[in-house]
Amino acid sequence: MADSPSLSRHSVWCPHVTVACVVADGDRFLMVEEEVGGRVAYNQPAGHLDDKESLVTAAVRETLEETGWTVALEHLVSVNQWRSTEHGDGVVRFTFAARALSHDPTRPLDDGIRRALWLTRSEIAALGERLRSPLVLMSIDAWLAGQRYPLDLLHSLLDEDRFP
Q: Can you state the subunit structure given in the record (predicted)?
C-alpha cells in the first residue's frame, strides 16, 4: 500500500524521529534543563533527526548543541515509540549510550536550554512530572539494567556517515 501511486507523499503518516543519549559518569547522568511550552523540563540531551542526517550523527550533534559535551557513542540502548503529550504526535526515539570525551563550557547552548547538569538516578526520579517524557527514566533504567545493542545494528546509506 505504501508504494501505491495513488498515495501522495503527504498522505503517509510520518512520526517525529528523535535521538537521545544516556551519558553516565559514575552514578551521575548528563541531563539538560530546558524551557518547553512555558515550563521547565528535564531531559537527556535529545532532539530531532535532520533530513539527510544519520541517527549516529544526530545523537552526537544534539548532545554537543545542548550540553557543550563532545561524546562518543558506544551502544544503542533502546528504540521507543510513543505519543507525545506536548504536541500529540507520534514519536520514534532512538536512545544511545555515550561516553563523554570533552567539554566546552564556553559553547552557547541551543535556544531553550537553560543548562546542562549531572544528576543521579534518584535525583532524576525525584523530578517526577518535570521530566520531559516517561522515556527519560525508562532509558536510564534500561541502561542500568545492562540493555545495550551494538551500533552496527544500525545501517546508514548516507554518504556522510557509513559504518565500517
A: Monomer.
